[in-house]
Design a protein that fits this description.
ten-stranded mixed β-sheet, Immunoglobulin-like, Rossmann fold, 2 domains, alpha/beta, 6 helices
């Protein structure tokens, strides 16, 4: 029987979908604001936790309170060894009028290949002399700009085969000095004999009939593929009634928490506070006794699908997060790509025969 796992919010158990047993795992958002004794709560204007080396960031904290209160917000930005910045701001808070404090942070310098950590803390002290109370604390990760520094040889060994009719992913790869061979059609994808296959984002499924079937067939033949954020359309649910291709051994659906599984320092909430058109969801649609994976709004579907095939071992990862538009806005998109390539390469290495 094909194994299907499915991540969702706040639920656990098992359900039957398209005739297959799906186990449902839950995840929760562990990020939360701290609350001072006087009922003062601090909420950041952004939940972003990853930044570039030497980047300057304007940070805003909004403070709310159950009752009117005056006081001082003290903030400190530090690494393990030194304080990078600190400041104090007097504010007035009313129940219907939150107070806010803004400050500019300069991220520390990190070397290529190194990820640094820093901590931002803020406390609030009322004007009546009460002891200050911590209202905000967040660990930030600082990344270099190049996720592939000193890894040119490894990238060459991946032999990336890129199918990208839209052209935007190819331009990104060129700008990032990621070597690849461009494949012009799904037919030529089928004829490629080696290398990892990447399918660029934004492909209209309705304009590329047979693409999804070709990708599933390639994974079933033992190839390793990564497919980014297709546009409108649907894919027949692999292994369901009426599906003509090979059924995967395992089929997994996950939310954006899959980013933490690739690298816990990456920002799993990065896309959630941005324009939702920059990512897509993967929903399950039943129609005329057949099941499909449908491209939907991010809030209505999962972020990630992983189809694992056996005899021979092959993998297809479909990621609903777009990387092109946000490449310069955070380290998360570019390092997610690097971790995805590493992850798929590791899966590939596990299946290749070793010399005795």
């Amino acid at each position: 029987m094909m194994n299907i796992s499915k991540g969702t919010r706040g639920e656990s158990g098992c359900v039957f979908v398209c005739g297959a047993l799906i186990s449902i795992a839950s995840w929760v958002d562990t990020a939360s604001a701290l609350e001072a004794a006087d009922g003062v709560t601090a909420n950041p204007q952004t939940t972003q936790t990853t930044f570039f080396s030497d980047e300057t960031v304007d940070f805003v904290l909004e403070l709310t309170a159950e009752d009117a209160v005056d006081g001082t917000v003290s903030w400190q930005f530090s690494t393990l060894h030194r304080t990078l910045g600190r400041g104090d701001t007097e504010i007035e808070i009313e129940p219907a009028k939150p107070g806010s404090v803004s400050f500019r942070l300069r991220m520390p310098h990190v070397k290529e290949g190194v990820v640094g950590q820093a901590v931002l803390k803020a406390s609030f002290q009322t004007n009546d002399g009460a002891a200050p109370a911590l209202v905000y604390e967040r660990e930030l990760s600082i990344f270099p700009r190049d996720p592939f520094a000193d890894r040119a040889h490894w990238l060459e060994e991946l032999e990336l085969q890129l199918f990208d009719p839209e052209g935007r992913t190819a331009k990104l790869f060129d700008d990032a000095r990621i070597p690849f061979r461009e494949v012009r059609s799904a037919t030529r994808l089928r004829s490629s004999e080696s290398g990892m296959i990447v399918v660029g984002e934004g492909i209209e499924l309705r304009n590329h009939a047979g693409l999804a079937d070709a990708l599933m067939e390639l994974a079933g033949d033992g190839r390793h593929l990564i497919w980014f954020a297709p546009a409108e359309g649907e894919i027949q649910f692999p292994g369901s009634d009426g599906f003509a291709g090979k059924s995967p051994k395992n089929l997994s659906f996950l939310g954006s928490n899959m980013i933490e599984q690739l690298d816990k320092r990456l920002d799993s909430g990065f896309w959630s506070e941005r324009d939702t058109s920059r990512s897509v969801g993967l929903g399950i649609l039943a129609r005329r006794n057949r099941c499909y994976i449908e491209v939907v709004e991010p809030s209505k579907g999962w972020t990630w699908m992983h189809a694992q095939f056996s005899d021979p071992e092959g993998h297809l990862i479909l990621c609903g997060l777009r990387i092109v538009d946000d490449w310069e806005k955070s380290p998360t998109p570019r390092f997610m790509l690097a971790r995805l390539l590493e992850h798929m390469d590791n899966l590939k290495q596990l299946t290749e025969p070793t010399d005795e």
